Every structure is written in C-alpha cells, then in structure tokens.
Amino acid sequence: MPVRSTPPASTEAALLHGVAATPMAFVQAIVQAFAARGLAPAAALQAAQIPPSTLRQNGSHITAAQMEALSAAAMQALDDEALGWFARPLPWGSYGLLARASLSAPTLGVALKRWCRHHGLLTPDITLAVTTQGDETRITLTEHRPLGGDGSLREFGSVSVLRNVHGLACWLVDSRIPLLGAGFPFPAPAHAQAYRVLFDGPTAFDADEASIRFDARYLALPLKRDEAAMNQMLQRALPIQVRPYRRDRLLVQRVRQVLMTQPLDAHNADDLASLLNTSARTLHRQLKEEGATLQALKDGVRRERAMALLQRTSKPLKQVAEAVGFQNEKSFIRAFKGWTGMAPGAWRGQR
C-alpha cells in the first residue's frame, strides 16, 4: 500500500535478492509518470539499482525489493502516492489516512467497505466497491476516466490499487486471504505470466471490469491490528503487497467445506491443495500451524456425512460408504466402529 516512506537503505545485493517477478512494464509506467511531470527518473532508478539501459528490455523483471525502493523514491519525487494514475496527485500520507480510518472497524468487511468508500474522496477517477453474492466476495474497480489520462497507465494503476487493498486486508486480519481469481478489462500483456505471482488465483483478461474475488467468510474476521502496529506498518507499507502470509485463519473451515461439498474431487492432499490454489506441502504445514491435520479433518467430515445419511436416508451401507469417500463397505464399517464404537447398521437401528 503506497504511503509516505523513505527508501530503505539497502545494498545492491539486498535489492537484487529474491525472485525477479515484477515486469519491466511497471518500471516503464513509473518512468512515464516522471515524464508527464517533466521530471527526470534517474535518481529513483538509481535508488532501486535499475540501470536505465534495461528500460527497453520489455521481457525483463525486477525484484520486489527493487520495486519497493523505486516506488518509494518516485512517490517522494512526484509527491504522488498514485504515481500518475489519477488526474490529481495523491499527496504523501493519503493512503495512510485511508488505512487509519479503517482501523477502528469491528470486522474486515466493515473495514474494506469503509476503505473503498473513503477512496472515492481522494479521487473521482475510479470507484471501488465490495459486493458479496453467495459465498464469494468481489472487490471491483470501475474507471470513470482513463488511468494516466490517456489510459497508458491503466494496467499499472489497476493492478496496484487491487494489490493495495488485498495486501491491506491480509495485514488487518493477520491472515493469508487466498484469491479465487482476478480479472482485468484489457488484453493479456506480454508479461501475463507475472500475474501468477501478482495474484495467487487464476487471472482473466478482457473482463468487464477489474476485480479480485475471495471467500466471503473472511469478511467476518475481526481486525488484529492496533494503532502501534499501524504506525510501524506505515513506515514501510509497500511490502504488505508481497508479504507471503503463512497463516490462513480460515483454512480449516475452507478444507472442511471442500471435503463436504466436493468429496469425489478431494481424494488426496494434492487434489485438495489444487482446489485451494496451494501446494500439498503448504497445505499440510498450514494445517499443522492451526493445530489440525488433513486426516483428522477428513475423518470428521466423513463421520458427519455418514451419520447424516444413516439417520436421514435408507441407503444401503455400500452406497453410504461410497458417498462419504470409502472405497468399499468393509473399510467404512471399520472406520465407523472406530468413531462410535458401533457398527453403522447397529447405530442406525438405534436412531
């Protein structure tokens, strides 16, 4: 989230450390913002250790640390936290004001709606909105004026704003919020592969509007940050866009939901992890951090579904076993005895 900050005093080695995943197109967009003001970008590029000669290398990338240093230097030089996206600059501290205004919200849902509403006070160029339909929440960005004036900064501005709000949301609840998807109203750029890193869900281009989507249950989470944490974050706010939050405070519920609703598609950890847009290794690690195991969750869901089917239907045991994910009736009976101390037929007879 761009706010007033001082470029970190980093060595060239530190700036170049990490995966170079940010496309050069975003560097070119910042350079264009300098040109629109009649200013030279040399000092900002030097602060980020980006040789001017590389600007013409459209297929190249820079690291997150370089992007942080470049953005911070550019925001100060231009006195614009929006880096040229909007008709009028956003002075230093603009996004900090939005973040502070959201901090007192009781839940993430209230905080996000407040942040989006207040963003309209900063600029009329775009409207941000939070909408929920069913179990999915969408944050949309509607343009009322071409970003950059002629639309030349459309991609950089749209991506940055949505990453800002997503990063802030994760920070406010101290949790990874995995995206179900992102969409942008422009053709896939040459560096479309970079969107796999910029947004952790599938990205669609030529969409009706720019948006990100995530599980609506995150909106009910209470905020975990206070004023002291806010002050510290605002000293270096840009990294919250790329911070790899390990903890997912809704992971257990999300796993249970998939196991309940898609049992045939979640036979093993690899299949389940794919449905959750993560890896099996990450899934096991995060469940362990939450004090849970995949096997225990599977057993719990199977037990609940088996009991419901035994109690509410007259399906034969073989069909119940298949419905709850067992390969055969024998293994189902053995597991059910372990759960209840009784065979499923005997348990059903007592209902």
How would you describe this protein?
The longest helix is centred in the middle third of the chain and has 20 residues. The protein is elongated. The protein folds into two domains: 230 residues, no CATH class; 100 residues, Homeodomain-like (Arc Repressor Mutant, subunit A). 36% of the residues are buried. The chain is 48% helix and 11% strand. Helix 10 crosses helix 13 and helix 13 runs antiparallel to helix 14. Strand 3 and strand 4 form a beta hairpin. It has a five-stranded mixed beta sheet, with helices on one face. Strands 1-2 form a two-stranded antiparallel sheet. By secondary structure, the protein is α+β, with helices and mostly antiparallel strands.
Summarize this entry quickly.
The chain is an alpha+beta fold.
Record the SSE blueprint:
Blueprint: H1 12-15, E1 20-23, H2 24-36, H3 42-47, E2 61-63, H4 64-78, H5 94-102, H6 108-122, E3 126-133, E4 136-143, H7 154-173, E5 179-184, H8 195-198, E6 203-205, E7 210-215, H9 227-235, H10 251-261, H11 269-275, H12 280-289, H13 294-312, H14 317-323, H15 329-340, H16 344-350
Parallel strand pairs: 5-6
Antiparallel strand pairs: 1-2, 3-4, 4-7, 5-7
Helix pairs in contact: 2-4, 5-6, 6-7, 10-13, 11-12, 13-14, 14-15
